[in-house]
Amino acid sequence: MFFLNRYKIELHAHSSESSRCGSVEAAELVEKYINAGYSALVLTDHYYARFFDKFSDLSWEKKLEKYLEGYKNAKEAAGDSEFKVFLGIEIKFSNDPNEYLIYGLNEEFLLKYPNLHHLNLEKFKNLAETDEAEILIFQAHPYRQGMAPADIRLIDGLEVYNGNPRHNSNNDKALNYAKKNNLKMISGSDFHEYEDLARGGIVSKELPLKINELCNLLKTGNYNLIKAGKLNLK
Q: What is the pLDDT of residue 21?
């Protein structure tokens, strides 16, 4: 497969509204990706204790409103344009050093099940299956310092290319591991700052219009990876 000049989709990006480490507001993030020639992005703000513990006096509904601020601002910025904004999360479970990119959930799921970060990976996967939610779990940067590949029975794939230039994510190790274990592979810029723009993502022949269509695309693997801003065959 090689899709030239087709639809670029960012799978890993953070807003300053909802990720403490993000430095770019969601509306500007959308503008930057449109100008960079992308057709869609998944906003995967950090879902972990450090965010929610700041609002310990609020109800879960109010906490979730705070968390979704970046996503909603991004959706508003995209407006009626052809650029698509999808909701994702990058979750860190309380007793797990790893981080996981979650695709397919929606606001209703997040409201129905509070404090998902208090679970572990296995319990989260079981919850999604019990709820019959079509959720995909991709481990982010599995070979970054302090992290290690999770049980392959509990994940759908790996982020084999992480474009963040301030971390050594050992992407080659992730790629080799994914190939060895026949795991689905994705790429993401891990956008936090301006220099991270358009360093990762995927290129597809078709543009997903809804999150379930994106999940179906990720299941098929019918796309190419973007590596450091360039197309890269898997």
A: 83
